Amino acid sequence: MVKATIRFFCIFTSGIFLWGCDTVEPWERGALTQYGMTADRDPLDAAMAEHVFYTREAAHGGGSVGGGGCGCN
Amino acid sequence: MEYIIIWSRIKPLVLAVLVGFLTIGLHEASAKVVEGDTFPDLSNFEFEGEVPEIEGKVVLVDFWASWCAPCKASFPAMERLYQEFKDRGFEIVAVSVDDSAAAYSRFAKRSGATFPILRDLGKKLVATCAIEAMPTSFMLDKSGRVHAVHQGYAGKKTDEQYKREILALLAKD
């Protein structure tokens, strides 16, 4: 009985937490196009991060995406 | 022991809450306007701009935003269609989902479009239609039923589809 109760509580709590997960709807993506949402809005920081990735992991580019955030291009 | 008694008492409540959450989640996921559905009545929603008279007309309802490049790219083509078919009972309702009223009116003015452009206040219409991409447009027949749903804008290909559908729907009684 106790085991079943604990199991149920775990499932219930997971359900509550998963309930908080949500997707950004296509019509809400305007917020993602704002300057503050840009990952590389500091050119110096972006260049330094790029340098670190390049020298340590031989990875170059591919750190950003194009488009206006509408998910349509 | 006390704990087990308390749990046995609250268990139905906990189950009810869980089932309630799941039901609401499933309902939200299934609320969507698809082909064959009657398009929501525009008079039930709030807009910035004047809602045109669409009863008995073939209507293209287009959801767009000033931050969506393909949406803006579709405007010249929609204007051409509007000019070509407006006298034969065709209407375009371009519904913006912009948060910013300034961005909306700036583009609406700059586009030079003569068809009705509205802004969905509170984004209730777009949420009711539950579109999956921007832009999305709904081609409605004369009875207000959704004939076709277009996701995205593929330039000439979409223009030709629009034209084919408009001609077919205008030809119907």
**Gap between N and C termini of chain A:** 54 Å
CATH C-level category of the largest domain in chain B: Alpha Beta
Number of helices of chain B: 6
Question: How much helix, percentage-wise, in residues of chain A?
Answer: 40-55%
Largest sheet of chain A: none
CATH A-level architecture of the largest domain in chain B: 3-Layer(aba) Sandwich
Low-pLDDT sequence parts of chain A: none
Q: Please state how the strands of the largest beta sheet of chain B are arranged side by side.
A: 1-4-3-2-5-6
Uncertain regions of chain B: pLDDT < 50 for 5+ in a row?
none
User: What is the name of the CATH superfamily of the largest domain in chain B?
Assistant: Glutaredoxin
State mean pLDDT of chain B (0 to 100 scale). 90
Q: Which sequence of SSEs, written as H and E, runs from N to C of chain A?
A: HH
Q: Biggest β-sheet of chain B, characterized?
A: 6 strands, mixed
User: What would the principal axes of the Cα set say about the shape of chain B?
Assistant: elongated
Oligomer class: heterodimer
Number of domains of chain B: 2
Structural class of chain A: mainly alpha
Name the biggest interface: A-B, 22 and 31 residues
Q: Mean pLDDT across all residues of chain A, rounded?
A: 77
